[in-house]
Amino acid sequence: MGDVTVRTGERLENGVPHPVTETTGKGLLRRLRAPRRPRLWFEILLIALSYWTYSLVRNAVPEQRTAALRNADWIWRVEQQLGIAVEETVNHAVNSVTWLVVGMNYYYATLHFVVTLGVLVWLYRSHPGRYAATRLVLFATTGVALVGYYLYPLAPPRLMTGGHFIDTVMVHETWGSMASGDLKNMSNQYAAMPSMHIGWSVWCGLTIFALASVPWVRVLGLVYPALTLVVIVATANHFWLDAVGGLACLAFGYGVAVAWYGSLPYALPRVVPCAGRRRVWLPGRA
């Protein structure tokens, strides 16, 4: 066959494929929303920066003691009217068993961070395609919680005036809370609503239950947030309704992820190709 010359304006009509770079706004948005493999250096930097920002903002919120105590009294009255104000009973019952309450103090202080980071690492290694979306849920949950801390200062039960709650960390001299003992000056005392111990633990639990393949591990995923709820109440760090606030923040986080990715994080592909420059080729005619 002889050489065929194709004019530029005739490329599409003659069925010659040519690369089209997605430079439009819609194409850019589509690429940003597409699942991709996470980059380790970026994730470490992002998590460190996010936690630093979270701590800075949370602790910079004005400690409005009067408002925080007034809100605590209101929460307590509401729970009494609802018939769920059993935090004091749970607090005293657990405090009577030294080994149990000391264990809960350390649980409260450590697992909140250890388990959450562990789940993030597991997602990064085993479910890279779902990592970014699931991480977005966590970050959005935490972000809206900061707004709650600012708008609604709330004293934990152990700081209520005239109350009979026991600060288990102080009584048993254990390091169990950034808001008790020698560490109390390093953290905002009145950021109890919403409870991120619940927000983060339920995020961990749902993620493990949805993605783990081993049955007993999935069961642990459900047990973890339930046990966390008992711990935050038994140590007098939160009311039941603080947990409801944490769940509301988590629902917001999932809503953000679904709005951005178009589906729940767990429904996305487990593995995606390595990130690279994408081109869309218009197919030629047969």
TrEMBL record:
It comes from the Bacteria. It is a multi-pass membrane protein. It comes from Streptomyces salinarius. Residues 1-20 are annotated as: Disordered. Residues 74-254 form the Inositolphosphotransferase Aur1/Ipt1 domain. The chain crosses the membrane at residues 40-57, 106-124, 136-152, 190-212, 219-239, 245-268. InterPro entries: Aur1/Ipt1 (IPR026841), IPC_Synthase-Related (IPR052185). This is Phosphatase PAP2 family protein. It is found in: Membrane.
